[in-house]
C-alpha cells in the first residue's frame, strides 16, 4: 500500500516544484514562452475616413493574455522584448497572426489594409521582407494590403533605415511614420524620407483645445503632400476640429477600441454595410 502512496506523493511534489519554477522564470523566459505558446496575439483597431466614417483599414496591436484571462498592453512588454533581443520573434509572430486570422477577410476586401507596427531594429532584419513576401504569395494578397508603421526613431539614422525602407516600399508596402511629432524629425529631414502617411500622435489630438503645435504638425504634413491619420480620437469635438484642418483619416475610441479578430470582422462588416 505504501508504494503507490509514495509514488503519488512524489508526483505531487514534482508538480508543485514545476509550478514554483515556472513562477521563478525570468521575465525574458516568460516572454519567450508566451511568444512560442502564442499567448501573445493581435487585436485590431479600425482606421476610418473622417469625412464619412467608413473604415479604410485597421492597425494590428499586440496583446498578451494572462493566466487569469486579462490582457496585457504592449507598452508593458515591448520594452522587455527590446532589451532581451526578442523583437524578431515577436514581430514574426504578429505578422504570421495577422495573415492567419485576417487572410481570408483581406482576400474579400482587396481595397482594405492592415498596418503592422515595426521596431527600428526590425529594419535590420533581412528575414522580414522575405516573410512578408512569402505570406502575401501564400494568401494571394496585394502588398498594398499590408502597411508598416515605424516611429520617428526608426528614421533616426537614414544610412541604416533608408535602404530597408526603400526595399519595403519597392515591394509595394505603404510606410507610415508613427507617433509623428514626438521625435526629432525636422521638416528638412522629413523631406528626404520615403514615406507615405503620417500618424499624428495621440498627445497632439488630446491637446487640441490648446491648438498650439497641432496645426503646425498638420501644415508640415500638408507641405510634404503626405496623407494623415490622427490617433486617439475620443470626442466629437476632436473629430470636428481634425476634419476642419483637413486631416483625412483617424482611429480612436470614438469609433472603436482595438478588438479581437472575430469582433473586428463583425465591426468591419457592419461599418462597410453602412450600419
Ligand atoms: P501606437 O502604434 O501609437 O498605437 C496606438 C495606441 O493608442 C494603441 O495602444 C491604441 O490602443 C491606443 N489608442 C487608440 N485609440 C485610442 C483612444 O481613443 N484613446 C486611448 N486612450 N488610446 C487609444 P496600445 O495597443 O496599448 O499600443 C501601444 C504601443 O505599443 C503602440 O503605439 C505601438 O507603438 C506598440 N505596439 C503595439 N503593438 C505592437 C506590435 O505588434 N509590435 C511593435 N513593435 N509595437 C507594437
Ligand atoms: Mg502604430
Ligand atoms: Mg502611434
Ligand atoms: Mg504610440
TrEMBL record:
Q: What is this entry's stated membrane topology?
A: Multi-pass membrane protein
Residue ranges occupied by any EAL domain in the UniProt entry: 24-272
The principal localisation class reads membrane
Q: What is the lineage of its organism?
A: Bacteria, Pseudomonadati, Pseudomonadota, Gammaproteobacteria, Enterobacterales
Residues crossing the lipid bilayer are: 1-21
Q: What is the annotated localization of this protein?
A: Cell membrane
User: E.C. number, please?
Assistant: 3.1.4.52
Task: Tell me which species this is from.
Answer: Kosakonia calanthes
Name of the protein in its database record: cyclic-guanylate-specific phosphodiesterase
